[in-house]
Design goal:
The chain is α/β, with parallel strands linked by helices and 208 residues long. It is 28% helix and 27% strand. The protein has a domain of 139 residues: P-loop containing nucleotide triphosphate hydrolases (Rossmann fold, 3-Layer(aba) Sandwich), CATH 3.40.50.300. The protein is built from 6 helices and 10 strands. The longest helix is centred in the C-terminal third of the chain and has 18 residues.
Amino acid sequence: MQNHSSADTPLLRAINLRGAHFGPLSLQLVSTECAVVQGASGAGKTLLLRALADIIPADGQVWLAGVLRNEIPAPDWRRQVALLPAESYWWADMVCSHFVGEPMYELSAVGFDADVLDWPVSRLSSGERQRLSLVRLLANRPRVLLLDEPTANLDAENIKRVESLVKTYMQQHQAGALWITHDAKQTARVGKRIIRVANGRLLSKDQA
């Protein structure tokens, strides 16, 4: 993919994005920025992330580093603008089948030893699945992280680990993130900006 980005080009930009139950809305995200997406249940937060990831149909225009989404093959777009859903998907019996290579750094960063790759998926708790699904996502080296409550099933120690890994990844890879959370303390820790959603529309974009 040709990179048209410059210092003045947003990493992610959406104009008049509209789906069956949300929009139109427009937003942008810059490199290394984490914007927290807030709103009541059913406000359209998850629909927004799914539309940006090209998981559900949506009209409007979306750019990644100045390149229109229509110019990028859909599988490539979904690797680069990557959605971590609230409930992760596991399609094979063994953990190792979901990874290419051995993501040693990311595994240790969220509290796993390498032998977790030899575990059956059925052995994993919901929190372990959540942490491993983040590692799986980062293995594709996305440029934009779309995180749908990525720490909802985690204890305080593992929440800290996930927040630290995401922050480190964003700095190392000049990535950006949209992070859905209902936790005000987490918002203050991770967010540079708050994007509020109600009835499928953006209400405001305030500094966190």
